[in-house]
From TrEMBL:
It holds the Pfam family Glycos_transf_2. It comes from Limisphaera ngatamarikiensis. Residues 311-335 are annotated as: Disordered. Keywords: Transferase. GO terms for molecular function: transferase activity. Residues 9-133 form the Glycosyltransferase 2-like domain. This is Glycosyltransferase family 2 protein. Signal peptide: none annotated. InterPro entries: Glyco_trans_2-like, Nucleotide-diphossugar_trans.
Amino acid sequence: MPSTSTALTIIIVNWNGGEKLLRCLRSIRASRTSFPVKVIVVDNNSTDGSRERAAAEFPEYHIVNTGANLGFGRGNNYARPWVDTPLVLFLNPDTELFPDTLEKAVHSLLSRPRVGILGCQMRDPDGTVQELGLQWFPTPGRVFLELMVPGWLRRGLPGRWLCHDPLRSGPVRKLYGGFMLARKEVLDAAGWFDERYFMYAEDVDLSRTVRALGWELFYDAGCAIIHACGGASQNAPSGFSVLMKQRSVEQLIEKYQGRCAARCHRRLVALAAALRLIALRLSGSGQRLENARIRSRLLWDWAWHGREATIPKGPEKQTRQTGFIPADPAIEKTP
């Protein structure tokens, strides 16, 4: 059972989180816990004033500016020197906790001695329970299938596609970075996040490493958070997210399966993008179809013409100009 001897550090990596970050911190402050909680906000050099507003409203929290946009994994690792508690929670700034979320999550983790990291149920602001990601490790062929098969069809084939029912608690193969409650001893053994990824693959890699060390991953549907996922902008064409996800997946595949597999991944992404563009051309018109065409074109440009794919005008272009999409780090081969 949690007690005053059980301490927790919450790490939040922020980049221009605005009001969402403040709502997240307010929900932490309103949490009911029987153990002390420390909060570290790692700010990736935000320019929207969110860091200053958080520091003014939450003087009890440790807010540090990295001076650059380090990305998700490296940003979380930046807080490591300040973590001296047995439990660590990686939390996205676009989330909100219920008053009993932390108490339930910590109790659930401590009651399962073989679980190294625990995830929880995530809900949209309207209460809709969000689906879990596919519970398999990426390969070139699997990435191709993910790009070609619609999500609603994948959810209809849970056994074949290794989906996990978000309404049911149980062991899982992968957890995702929006909410990851971990034992510090497990993180130290795993080396925390691999910093080769800017974002989108470091949580998958950490999940694989933790399981390889003999620890279990557990998804608890009994504790929940609200996850805004970008709010109204979620349905807009997102050049950054489309390109960064595939680049990180390519790095993940190269790390474990070699350069040939990474090249195969890129060619299959190009094939999937071409097939999607053909299908979309025959599907009529509409904003959703146009957004899908933009994303497919971005994938084609990235996979077939190289890493410097053209970002559409708007927020995606601005993030490119301000350095939000970093240069590709050198990929070191693992033994």
